């Protein structure tokens, strides 16, 4: 029991720069209090003491602001950061090393008892503030769910889900490795580079337009060479300097898009 408590405290010290000492974490972090109470409620639930498990869960909600059903399964080194307003449903499963921020709901969309109604989070998943993960599907290992996303379908391992309804963005492996090294293995609030699919689409259009401009510049160069021989093109085909001054401001547009 004490070894698991030490690992829970250490994971908070590793991931939260505001945490200064183990004593501060033990006495001032509601996330770890919620975990300690949930383990007792979960034991009661699994040993037939359903009412007592629910009562402990209810008291934990009152004390910490975090509501975890006693039937939920939670792995080791899970960090509920701030976590006010977090709701974890009965059949939810949270893997080792997950980070969950405030206002998150791991909820269900089915009313049938005895079925898998709530999501399963793999290892090292980050769920951003205000995200809603609804349904009995799986979020793969290392996935990121952006703040205020509404996820209603499976998320592949290592991918990022953003928006309402959530859209899946496959992670860039090189960027993920760099971020993991700089952020101690997790991405705060589920935000990574290239998260916004609309911005990605706009950037693609900008890059495509810039490529067309390069091709047009090459055509102008070819026309200039041909214009040196008036017998080939004729005087009316000599390039117009005004036309060549027009260009596509790709750099400025990329700056506006945050690239």
What is the overall shape?
elongated
Q: Briefly note the structural class of the backbone.
A: alpha/beta
Order of helices and strands: HHHHEEEEEEEEEEEEEEEHHHHH
Q: In order across it, which strands form the biggest sheet? A: 3-6-9-12-14-15
What does this structure look like?
This protein is of the alpha/beta class and 259 residues long. It has two domains: 2-195, UDP N-Acetylglucosamine Acyltransferase, domain 1, CATH 2.160.10; 198-256. The protein has helices at 2-15, 22-28, 30-46, 50-64, 173-182, 197-227, 230-233, 241-245, 250-256, and strands at residues 67-68, 73-74, 79-80, 87-88, 93-94, 99-100, 105-107, 120-121, 126-127, 132-134, 138-139, 144-145, 150-151, 160-162, 167-169. A hairpin with a 4-residue loop joins strand 14 and strand 15. It is elongated and about 95 Å long. The model has no long low-confidence stretch (mean pLDDT 81).
Compact summary:
With 259 residues, this protein is α/β, with parallel strands linked by helices.
Give the arrangement of secondary structure elements.
Blueprint: H1 2-15, H2 22-28, H3 30-46, H4 50-64, E1 67-68, E2 73-74, E3 79-80, E4 87-88, E5 93-94, E6 99-100, E7 105-107, E8 120-121, E9 126-127, E10 132-134, E11 138-139, E12 144-145, E13 150-151, E14 160-162, E15 167-169, H5 173-182, H6 197-227, H7 230-233, H8 241-245, H9 250-256
Parallel strand pairs: 1-4, 2-5, 3-6, 4-7, 5-8, 6-9, 7-10, 8-11, 9-12, 10-13, 12-14
Antiparallel strand pairs: 14-15
Helix pairs in contact: 3-4
